[in-house]
Specification:
With 275 residues, the protein is mostly helical. The protein has one domain: Rhopdopsin 7-helix transmembrane proteins (Up-down Bundle). Helices cover 69% and strands 0% of the residues. Helix 1 packs antiparallel against helix 12, helix 6 packs antiparallel against helix 9 and helix 11 packs antiparallel against helix 12.
Length: 275
């Protein structure tokens, strides 16, 4: 399905984006291969210590979606999710001390992980149109950092739009819901339901932007979008396969794959129409 060229409606890639993608793929493949080889490299006495070490270190893979995510809100969620994952495993699995009850860290890890998924999925909803700035507005710092269209991929700014406000409000309400259901001990089914509902919204939104009559992107961007969605889906499937396994090594791979999935989905969103 070819689309006639229109005015630019998607962000341009950064000059070094290709190098970033190459480093991401190579490092991810090599690190996962290493994790899978721990049982072959070390004897049984050292395997447990090495796996516990990588239970913490594997959260470093949050660097990739953190750098690639569009806007400060999504970056904040990714960073917070990685932080609470570290402190949760530090206190619950490694049995090392930290202030506060470790249940607090477990609750934060669970809730922020869900909210990150929700926010990513909502970010694929078609954007509302923003008013074009005047030349005077473009010179003001408030407009430069907080309003208007994004100027580049992976922007470290918080541009207040209707979509962002809706995203934050929905995440806030879901966070409250998860907090109280977690208190009552019946949150697992609700968490799964929220995830699948969010994923469904993302799929519908992306399909509408790819094949809708009123919203179009270029054929080149369409192929790139499909490429990153495909890899993100593969990483996501691998992540959830390892999530249900009881071993520490499998949970390390879960960390790497779920953050890699987030990176791919961040890359994919850059080829959708922005406004």
């Amino acid at each position: 399905m070819k689309v006639s060229p229109k005015e630019q409606t998607a962000l341009n890639e950064d000059d070094d984006q290709g190098e970033m993608d190459l480093v991401f793929f190579v490092s991810t493949i090599l690190y996962v291969l290493y994790l899978l080889s721990i049982e072959l490299i070390y004897d049984k006495e050292n395997q447990s210590a090495v796996n516990n070490f990588h239970l913490i270190v594997s959260n470093v893979w949050a660097f990739y979606p953190l750098m690639q995510a569009q806007g400060l809100w999504l970056k904040l969620l990714v960073a917070s999710s990685a932080y609470f994952s570290v402190v949760w495993h530090w206190t619950s699995d490694l049995k090392l001390p930290l202030p506060h009850d470790k249940k607090l860290y477990g609750r934060g890890d669970s809730i922020l992980s869900i909210l990150t998924i929700v926010s990513y999925c909502l970010s694929w909803i078609p954007k509302t149109k923003v008013d074009e700035p005047t030349k005077e507005e473009e010179k003001k710092a408030l407009y430069k950092y907080c309003r208007g269209k994004p100027n580049e991929t992976a922007e470290w700014r918080c541009r207040w739009t209707y979509n962002l406000c809706i995203n934050i409000v929905i995440c806030f309400l879901i966070g409250i819901l998860l907090y109280f259901t977690n208190e009552n001990g019946n949150s697992e089914e609700i968490q799964v339901g929220i995830c699948w509902m969010s994923i469904s919204i993302a799929v519908i939104s992306a399909s509408y932007q790819l094949y809708g009559d009123r919203i179009t992107i270029t054929e080149k961007n369409r192929k790139k979008f499909i490429f990153w969605v495909a890899f993100g889906s593969v990483f996501g499937i691998i992540a959830f396969v390892h999530k249900v396994k009881p071993t520490v090594n499998a949970h390390c791979i879960w960390h790497v794959m779920v953050f890699s999935c987030s990176y791919c989905f961040s890359r994919a969103s850059e080829y959708l129409e922005i406004y």
